[in-house]
Specification:
Elements: H1 3-17, H2 26-31, H3 68-72, H4 75-93, H5 108-116, E1 121-125, E2 141-142, E3 145-146, H6 152-173, H7 177-190, H8 199-205, H9 209-220, E4 221-225, H10 229-235, H11 241-248
Helix pairs in contact: 1-7, 4-6, 4-9, 4-11
């Protein structure tokens, strides 16, 4: 789908959301993006949260005041850095499937700065992944079916390849279908047309790439703080761009 067509869809979504005679749910509006053309770069797998429970508070790391430089980053840069951060996390879990992003013309400064900073967190693949059918992990597609324990690595390889392809497109031209959905969700949240702290809002969120990926990471891995030493620590801010994205979507608790 080209940029113009995507913008037309977004305009239509905003128009519908502002109607005083709204009969269609926000979830169904967001779901409309699933019907994009075969040229879509990185389609988000279908998943629905059936047992919804809101967390009591957001992550501590983003409860602190953000630096001036971070607050000045526009949504496009935050989206790119979040997706790149998530791809590197997937690569920690499945290193044999990693494809190196060597250059990024559109986000050159942000890309270079991110790679220059030492990692402050490490991720390890869980030995026992919850086999509950509601686990987002088992909603990854592989060969027309849901992933199983036997096919999960192959399903993750395909998911990583799609994510890498989207990152490549972002580096080339600065946008993707998933970015526009992210940007639009932020607009809806700011105008109180969607609230993430409800079952409907949560199921709208999981149709965004960053939230789906975050759920995958949470269910696939364990997370540990990296001891990088005082010298490096003084030069490295403990910033997780995924959580900054969640802040902008008003979904820190997710």
């Amino acid at each position: 789908m080209n940029k113009l067509a995507t913008l037309i869809l977004l305009s239509s979504l905003m128009s519908c959301a502002s109607s005083t005679h709204q009969t269609e749910s926000i979830e169904s509006k967001i779901a409309g993006f699933e019907d994009r053309s075969d040229s879509e770069v990185n389609p988000i797998p279908s998943y629905k949260i059936r047992s919804f429970k809101k967390k009591s508070r957001g992550p501590a790391s983003v409860g602190q005041e953000l630096t001036k430089d971070i607050s000045k980053l526009d949504n496009k840069k935050v989206y790119f850095l979040s997706l790149y951060e998530q791809y590197l996390t997937f690569s920690d879990l499945y290193p044999s499937f990693k494809k190196d992003v060597k250059t990024c013309a559109y986000f050159h400064q942000e890309f270079s700065s991110y790679n220059d900073k030492p990692k402050t967190w490490s991720y390890q693949l869980r030995e026992d992944i919850d086999d509950n059918i509601e686990n987002v992990v088992w909603h990854l597609p592989y060969d027309g079916e849901r992933a199983t324990k036997a096919t999960l690595p192959l399903a993750m390889k395909e998911h990583m390849d799609r994510t890498y392809y989207e990152i490549s497109k972002l580096c080339d031209n600065g946008f993707s279908d998933n970015y526009y959905v992210f940007e639009n969700y932020i607009s809806l949240a700011k105008s109180n047309k969607v609230y993430a702290g409800t079952s409907e809002g949560a199921n709208s969120l999981v149709k965004t790439s960053l939230v789906f990926n975050k759920l995958l990471i949470d269910n696939l891995s364990t997370k540990k703080k990296v001891n990088i030493g005082r010298g490096l620590a003084s030069k490295s801010e403990d910033i997780e761009y995924t959580e900054i994205s969640f802040r902008r979507m008003q979904a820190l608790w997710f």
